[in-house]
Design goal:
Helix 1 packs antiparallel against helix 2, helix 1 runs parallel beside helix 4 and helix 7 packs antiparallel against helix 12. The chain folds into two domains: about 160 residues, Transcription Elongation Factor S-II, Chain A (Up-down Bundle); about 300 residues, Uncharacterised protein PF01937, DUF89, domain 3 (Rossmann fold, 3-Layer(aba) Sandwich). About 40% of the residues lie in helices and about 10% in strands. By secondary structure, the protein is an alpha/beta fold. The protein is built from 19 helices and nine strands. The longest helix has about 30 residues. The strands form two sheets. A seven-stranded mixed beta sheet has the order 3-9-8-7-4-5-6, sandwiched between helices. A two-stranded antiparallel ribbon has the order 1-2. Bound molecules: 6-O-phosphono-beta-D-fructofuranose (F6P). The site of 6-O-phosphono-beta-D-fructofuranose has 13 residues, from helix 1 and helix 17. This is Sugar phosphate phosphatase.
Length: about 500
């Protein structure tokens, strides 16, 4: 087969040549309903990712370090060549393991989360320990974890983020959009309507081309008023579930605790849009504090890490545009006054596990979340982990698919980029499929889903229920069903 070139979401050119698979266990057809996503199914996005996208991404990592070699030599001296060679060799080996569908290997280096990973890998049933036979979530997370381990175990490059330039470029090329959004969102009054618009802007920024097209304006159009926000109405025709009212009502309820946990997704422009929303929330007392949960290591190309947060704020503070620079300074103040904080980094977010096991596998993190008013999970990967990477009936209720994971009230905001979805009206998924067979991977459709927690019945394993319901009067509610969309915003 002749090589084909496609451009991935970060603009990388990826060769999609296929080599012969030695895997005899693959199945024709798409992933069946009520199964885990997996590279076993040849008509799935998981298969395409493992067969074509991941080798391409690994090739790009190789090119990045090789191209950076002169700069690295200048910084670290000639000895860094040895690191680069070892990293390149290790990535080539990993490509080969993936191509031959080899068993996952244990971690033996300096990885701080190696014990958790090794325990997880050895508990997987043997037939589910190879790239194409495993659940896609396990295989994909394992690949990103292995890639960073090569850097982590090197002498000079243990902090090297091989994706940082992509996140930075994404922000830099979004300058015009950032200016418009910044101007349009200064001093917005506290209304549901404004919150709703900001939520939708934020959602659509998870669809990666947004910064290039969605908010472009002609010269004659006003660039600094609320009409800019009204533009989002044009692009949310394809919002399949919209629980924004429930999210607003959750934040508006009186109660002692107004912390919001924000489980971040991508850096670059998406993080800028996240901050616009979060700034609005703290400025208007919709949250007393926001805790950003970022990734401990470079992850899924564009995911946000602590250095990305620092770089972004610093970039804005020193921007020549006055409005962006003022915004950067304001956000720096929100961070130094701890209105917005970076939560202690947890390796659970860069583990392979779905969120319903968090209570058993990372009780500390689970406890942190129980201590907040609302946890917002942003993006497709977080959604997959909430759903357990499982093909539910598309009309199944969000609350059911969480499989008991309800440390606090939960909101998921994501554009649909893989075959996992729930909470849709009966028949909608079939209609969408008839009209557009790529609807589940295009990122063109979105969901904002919400469910409240049942604090009063929540106990940690081996403990009495230690969360007293009287501490949560406003949050103790009957189980919520699927949202009807007919709710009225408080206030
Ligand atoms: O940035 P997001 O929204 O989490 O998207 C990442 C997702 O995109 C993909 O690359 C394609 O679905 C998946 O690997 C992953 O779930």
């Amino acid at each position: 087969m002749s090589p084909q070139i496609r451009v991935n979401k970060m603009g990388w050119r990826i060769s999609t040549h296929s080599e012969r698979s030695t895997n005899t266990d693959l199945m024709e057809g798409p992933t069946p309903r009520h199964s885990l996503l997996s590279g076993r199914y040849k008509q799935s996005f998981a298969y395409l990712t493992l067969r074509s996208r991941m080798p391409g991404i690994m090739q790009q990592v190789i090119m990045r370090v090789v191209n950076d070699l002169p700069m690295l030599e200048e910084k670290f001296g000639e000895e860094v060549r040895k690191d680069v060679k070892q990293i390149v060799d290790a990535i080539e080996r990993l490509k080969m393991e993936l191509n031959r569908d080899r068993q996952f290997l244990q971690f033996h280096g300096n990885e701080p989360d190696k014990a958790e990973w090794n325990a997880f890998l050895s508990e997987l049933p043997r037939p589910k320990r190879t790239f194409f036979r495993a659940c896609w979530l396990h295989a994909e997370c394992y690949l990103y974890r292995r890639i960073f381990s090569f850097f982590e175990n090197s002498r000079f490059l243990h902090n090297f983020d091989c994706f940082d330039h992509l996140k930075q470029e994404d922000l830099i090329i979004s300058e015009e959009t950032m200016k418009i959004l910044a101007k349009a969102t200064r001093d917005l009054p506290k209304t549901f309507d404004n919150f709703h618009k900001l939520l939708r802007i934020n959602l659509w920024c998870n669809h990666f081309e947004i910064q290039l097209g969605a908010f472009t304006f002609t010269e004659e159009e006003p660039q600094n008023d609320i009409n800019v926000l009204a533009k989002v109405a044009d692009i949310d025709r394809v919002l399949l579930v919209n629980d924004s009212v429930l999210v607003w009502n959750c934040l508006m309820k009186p109660g002692p605790n107004g912390i919001v946990d924000y489980i971040c997704d991508n850096g670059g422009f998406e993080f800028f849009a996240d901050m616009v929303l979060l700034e609005y929330m703290v400025d208007n007392n919709l949250a007393t504090q926001v805790r950003l949960h970022v990734k401990a290591i470079p992850w899924y190309i564009s995911d946000l890490t602590r250095p990305d947060v620092e770089w972004t704020i610093n970039y804005l503070v020193h921007h020549e545009d006055e409005c962006l620079s003022a915004l950067g300074k304001k956000w720096a103040r929100l961070i130094s006054s701890e209105k917005i904080v970076i939560a202690p980094v947890s390796h659970f977010w860069t583990g392979p596990q779905p969120y319903f096991v968090m209570v058993e596998s990372d009780i500390e993190l689970y406890r942190v979340l129980t201590n907040s008013r609302l946890a917002i999970f942003k993006g497709d990967l977080n959604y997959r982990k909430l759903m357990g990477d499982y093909i539910w009936d598309s009309a199944e209720e969000f609350i059911t698919c969480l499989r008991g994971f309800r440390p606090t009230n939960i909101c998921a905001m994501r554009t649909v980029k893989c075959e996992v979805v729930c909470g849709l009206p009966e028949g909608m998924a079939d209609t969408l499929l008839r009209n557009d067979h790529t609807w589940m991977i295009s990122g063109s459709y979105g969901v904002i889903q919400y469910t409240d927690s049942l604090k009063c019945s929540c106990a940690f394993p081996g403990e009495e229920n230690n969360i007293k319901s009287e501490h949560w009067p406003a949050l103790v509610q009957p189980r919520s069903g699927r949202s009807t969309g007919a709710q009225t915003p408080i206030g």
